[in-house]
Amino acid sequence: MKWLYILLSLVGGMLAGLQAPINGSLGKKIGSLEGAFTSFFVGTLFLTFVALFFGKGQLVQLLQVPKWNLLGGLLGAAFVTITIISVPKVGAAAAILAAIVGQLVISMVIDHFGLFGVPKIPMNMNRLFGLLFMLAALFFIYRGNAAS
After folding, report:
1. What distance in Å separates the CA atoms of residue 22 and residue 37, rounded to the nearest whole number?
2. Three-class SS of residue 33?
3. Three-state SS for 10?
4. Cα distance between residue 87 and residue 101, in whole Å
5. How big is the chain by its Cα radius of gyration, in Å?
6. Total-model pTM
7. What is the per-residue burial (b if ≥16 Cβ within 10 Å, else e) of 65-79?
8. Rounded CA separation 99/23 (Å)
9. What pLDDT sits at residue 147?
10. Can you say how many angstroms the Cα of residue 134 is from the centroid of all Cα atoms in its chain?
């Protein structure tokens, strides 16, 4: 059953890969910050509808969560803004791969120490080699940009 979550995450990554050039194009036309705002505004409208009709009605619990839990939206906004700025300069593949490598680095630290309530998964050679291969992929993908 866990493979289903891997597949779901793969689809989520594909959506982020689509989002990056779409937002990059929007940002070139209306401005980077304006593009990020528009992207989040449209997303907020969509999620408002979904939460109202399909949510569990637990939004009132928002007042009970630790305040640091609210940083996710801020981090997401920063990520989208950075992507909007980066994609037109280095291309979708290099920008997304760099973002994925950044996500892997911080995720491995989080796993290793079991931060934020995730299961503790110690760093090992397999994980380290996986990260090194991703860094090599970033090098070759980015270098491929320079060759064009």
Report:
1. 14
2. helix
3. helix
4. 16
5. 18
6. 0.84
7. eeeeeeeeeeeeeee
8. 15
9. 62
10. 16
Tokens encoding 36: 């990020």
C-alpha to C-alpha distance for 16 and 24, rounded to whole angstroms: 12
Tell me how far apart the alpha carbons of residues 119 and 107 are, in angstroms, rounded to a whole number: 11
Phi, psi values for residue 12, rounded to 5° = -60, -40
The 3-class SS string of 67-113 reads HHHHHHHHHHHHHHHHHHHHHHHHCHHHHHHHHHHHHHHHHHHHHHH
Backbone angles phi, psi at 136, to 5 degrees: -65, -40
Distance CA 146, CA 93 (A): 13
Residue 77 makes CB contacts below 8 A (sequence gap 6+) with 36, 40
The mean pLDDT values, 10 residues at a time, for the chain of 148 residues are 90 92 95 95 95 89 91 93 94 93 96 95 97 95 77
